[in-house]
Design goal:
The protein is of the alpha+beta class and 241 residues long. It is built from seven helices and eleven strands. The strands form four sheets. Strands 6, 9, 10 and 11 form a four-stranded antiparallel β-sheet that branches. A three-stranded antiparallel β-sheet has the order 3-2-5. It has a two-stranded antiparallel sheet with strand order 1-4. The N and C termini lie far apart (130 Å).
């Protein structure tokens, strides 16, 4: 017989009794049940139990929790964490030197103002999940719905203002108006979301008209400077007359 060929006929398998096999299977099943029964909820989360697909109250607090194996499923909702959605841009890496995505998001940021001009508006919405049940069960695909509502509200607010207000003096008022209107919609549609802040990250005219806008802006600044100088000279000379 070839030396490289292994003869398996002489190998004997251990003689296991049915009792040992039963115990091994029982231990294995027990481990699977235990592993599927125990889960951890982080300090900033609550655990929502779905028993056979249906909501099972109340939400589970942070810590080590237990559920029915193979029947319950757990969805963890970050109720203490501030969440964020970006519009008109995307952050690839946050830090001291933030890196932004080179992709173009003009479909989100290009907006028509009330005086029929165009502005490129980039903004951030910061929010929290205040009602986990509504967040998960009242609106289908709540994140996409919330994003669509946010963009619609911003376009409506921008469309009621002039391009000068959007680019300069009206930014804070726009942020406040969007926050109030967006919160009203979130409450109306029972999204379970509370708006913390709306921030206009960057607002500019479109690239093709930026040079013209800069010239107009510079001319307005020079005009204001001349007016202020004239008023100062007037206030200095008139009292002497």
């Amino acid at each position: 017989m070839d030396k490289d060929v292994i003869d398996l006929s002489n190998i004997k398998l251990p003689n296991l009794s049915p009792r040992i096999i039963f115990i091994a299977v029982a231990v294995l099943l027990g481990l699977v049940v235990v592993m599927d029964s125990v889960y951890q909820v982080q300090p900033e989360e609550v655990g929502i139990i779905r028993r056979l697909g249906r909501y099972n109250a109340p939400p589970r607090p942070p810590g080590l929790q237990f559920k029915l194996p193979f029947i319950d499923t757990v969805v963890k909702v970050p109720v203490q964490r501030q969440l964020k959605q970006e519009f008109g841009f995307r952050t690839q890496e946050a830090g001291q030197r933030t890196i932004y995505s080179p992709q173009d998001f003009l479909g989100e940021s290009l907006m028509l103002t009330g005086d029929l001009n165009v502005a490129v508006v980039e903004w951030i919405v910061q929010y929290r999940v205040s009602d986990p049940y509504k967040y998960l069960f009242r609106v289908r695909n709540v994140e996409a719905t919330f994003r669509a509502m946010t963009e619609a509200v911003m376009r409506g607010i921008i469309g009621d203002r002039t391009v000068t207000e959007v680019l300069t003096v009206g930014r804070q008022e726009i942020e406040t108006s969007v926050k109030v209107k967006l919160q009203e919609l979130c409450n109306q549609y029972e999204t379970g979301i509370t708006i913390d802040q709306v921030v206009l990250q960057d607002v500019n005219p479109p690239d093709p008209v930026k040079p013209s806008w800069d010239q107009v802006n510079q001319a307005q600044q020079q005009r204001d400077q001349l007016i202020n100088e004239a008023k100062g000279e007037y206030n200095r000379v008139i009292p002497r007359a």
